[in-house]
Amino acid sequence: MRLSDFDLAQLDEQTVTGLPGAQKDVLLVKLLSDLKEARDRLKSDSRTSSRPPSSDDPWSGSSSDTPEDTPEDTPAPETQSEAESSPGENSSEQSPQDEPEDAHKPSAGSDNDSRRAGRRPGATGHSRELTLPVSETIYHYPPQCSRCEGALEADQFIACTGHYVLDIEPGEVEGLRGLQVRHDKHVYGEIACEKCGHRTRSEPGRCPGEDLWKVRLSEWHLVGVTLSSLIVCLSQRMGLSRRRIQEFLLDWLGIKLSTALIDQCIREMGRAVHPLEELLVEEIEQTVLAHVDETPWKEWGQLLWMWVFSTPHLCVYFIGYRSAEILQNVLGERFTGWLMSDGYQVYRQFHRRLRCWAHLLRKARGLEDSLNAEARGFGRYTHQLFDELMGAIYAARAGPGDEDLSERYRQRLDVFRALCERHRDSGHAKTRALAREFLNDWEAIWVVLKYPYLPLTNNEAERALRHWVIIRRLMQGTRTPEGTRVVALLASVIETCRRRQVLPWPYLASVLAERRKGNPVPPLPAVPAG
Q: Does residue 492 contact residue 315 with C-beta atoms inside 8 Å?
């Protein structure tokens, strides 16, 4: 390298543009030399250097398979006649395979490195059978010269490579809604600039890589964004397995996809919506009232918990351990609103907390039906107290203003507290547990008497979990951390769109379209007025 890190640290855009012409040319030559050397190092592997084969990336192929300026997962450049050939010709070479894009690249050091990636015509095995007609051929022209930024003439376009995209298009005919399958051919190529002679090549959009995700986001994909959104709907909303989704698409739409590609589409959508999680957490921190609950979730036999943080206009899901760490990461110290929860002790760190009366009332009814005389008496008194206080709260809500009921029922609550103190060491286990639960969460349980407009139950969070409990039973949990992450992310976006009275599927399609191009994620749908 002709320029060290110390040298580069002293260079910025203002410094470079301010250099005289001769000095700028000298610097440009050095930068060009360093860039070419860095590219050569980046492309080197065990075949072109002394590196051992074990150091090669498992997905990397021969450097001769892909031209220098072509994305690493694209076929080799073709002539214009090859790129524009009919879809029935060379179908096994022209179309992306039904497996992940790098699955058929020859391994480093093999005898077939010089051949094009993919299954050989006539070889045994499975490959994609392309029989659909092309709906439209879409040419992607370079917008401007990458050297001088001058305008380019479209009639000078030379096709280099291309791929097919299967998608669905919602339509409406005479008031009847339906779906139409599209099979588009996307062609990429290059144009030579008439001013400087530099050739600029168009390429599919690509989202920068993230170390946490194995799936890639790129426009070089067989499945279109609307079809991907339908696959997510069938999986996350309808609870269909990958094989059942495959069957549905083939039977009803005539689209043949592998289960591996279907799974890739679901994971790709999860990565696409990942930036929205931070926005949802910021909204949760600023809310006045949030409901929280958790339910078990298994990841390849490991017991985890699905958490939900719910408000009237958004839901955020997380899957992790049942500890205070998730609460601190989501709410932290910036959350100053009311938190409705059950009796799990990690919630006690929040001073403005509400306890769900439905949980306590169910336990009181259980004691009321007990064969133990002490338990029956305690349960009956607790049940009667709840009925009386709930009636007073409903009456206060229907009144002209917010009435403070805490003073009116102070004496009654003092009697009940003494009763709980008397039973906190009871020999009956459930009686002892309920009495201690009242004493530990006394303020959180009865604060609703002072503010009768606050909710009495945590049904909001429990309803938000109910659908995903059903999905958990159908899926039997997840197998990988990435799959677990995808379930939580998609659940958050889908439920938030539903609560904002917006269809989630067109929004998910728009998010995936922008993220495949490498653009920022579109904003969340706005909260409906009123």
A: yes
User: Which H or E element spans position 186?
Assistant: strand 176-192
Beta-strand runs (E) in 249-369: 289-299, 302-311, 314-320, 338-341, 353-355
Closest to 272 (Cα-Cα) out of 527, 524, 518: 518
Extents of the domains making up the chain: 289-460
**How far is 358 from 458, CA to CA, in rounded Å?**
8
Q: Taking the chain (530 residues) in consecutive chunks of 10 residues, what is each chunk's mean pLDDT?
A: 82 87 88 88 77 71 42 40 37 39 44 62 69 91 88 92 94 85 96 90 89 90 97 96 97 94 97 96 94 96 96 96 91 91 93 95 95 96 96 89 84 96 96 97 96 95 96 93 96 97 97 96 90
Task: Please give the structure tokens belonging to residue 273.
Answer: 């919506």
Helix, strand, coil tally for the chain in percent (to 5): 45, 15, 40
Taking the C-alpha atoms of residue 153 and residue 191, their distance in angstroms, rounded to an integer, is: 7
The predicted pLDDT at position 94 comes to 40
Is residue 512 within 8 Å of 228, Cβ to Cβ? yes
For residue 72, the model assigns a pLDDT of 40
What does the DSSP 8-state code read for residue 85? S
pLDDT at 118: 66
Residue 494's contacts (CB-CB under 8 Å, 6 or more residues apart) are 236, 237, 504, 508
- The pair phi, psi for residue 275, each rounded to 5°, is -60, -20
What is the β-pairing status of strands 136-140 and 176-192? parallel
Distance CA 234, CA 456 (A): 35
Count CB-CB contacts under 10 A for residue 428: 18
Q: Which residues contact 413 (CB under 8 A, 6 or more apart)?
A: 446
Residue type, 359: H
